[in-house]
Amino acid sequence: MARPVWSGVLAFGLVSVPVGLYTATDSHTIHFHQLQRGTSDRVRNRRVNERTGEEVDLDDIVKGFDAGDAYVLVEPQELEDIAPGRSKALEITGFVDLDDVDPIFFDRTYYLGPRGAEHGKIYRLLEQALSRANRAGIATFVMRQREYLVAVKAEDGLLTCHTLHWADEIRDPRKEIANLPGRPKTSDKERKMADQLIETLAIDWDPEEYQDTFRDKVAALIEAKQAGETVEKAEPAAEATNVVDLTEALRASVDKARGTKGRRGGAGRREPGKQPRPKRRTDTARRSGDLGDLTKSELYDMAAEAGVRGRSTMTRDELAKALAA
Question: What is the domain count for the chain?
Fold first, then answer.
């Protein structure tokens, strides 16, 4: 079982329950070490005294604020002393409608679990009440010498804790982006085609349908280099759409989307409650054994999933033959 990254008391009104905070997500990114080119020598980051050039032990490092003419030194215990108990309590100050919280404010997600079976009733009572009300409890607490603004909400029978950005951390897009469009005029035909394209490409949200394909390609690159092989280069990114041909590009996109859904067995337009969840073309081809419509890139991805060796040097026909076998 995982260990909590923080332990304390969740309080709402005069009711409280001891809880632990658990990391809810994992990163599966492939990590590389830094090496000096032409060698197998690791390059490491070290804590070094700028004046002496000597490495400094972690226990000998304190925090310092640059006040201009001198540093103001602050010890970790002093940070704890100015907010006694704040690092042990997560106190809900109010409950907000979840629909009122803009998604841009959400940062990281944690699970909240009761510390002990005897606290399960209070924990479940709050979880069920939040679920019925579609509300989240807003609270602040201190963890690792930093104060967090959080939203406590109910999800799938448990409480989750979402750290939120502070209001002054949200950047104004009009100050950050130079080329934001004003209100350019669009024709009725363009708006209709855009709406039609979105409706044609409508799908049901299923996170299991998506995977980190770049990570898979990095893993395939490492495998190929170990075997002394090369890998296929990705196709170049799409060019920007010519505004003059916008209507025609939208119409072609709708036709293509309809054709793709037709090959998948779906309808041209989505009917609420009736449209089946679209599958990847590779999934459909794998079940039917018909690889004729797949591109070389799609065949290569299938070959990577199937562990076909030597795939990086194969032509499209050779990939299809290897997969069929």
Answer: 2
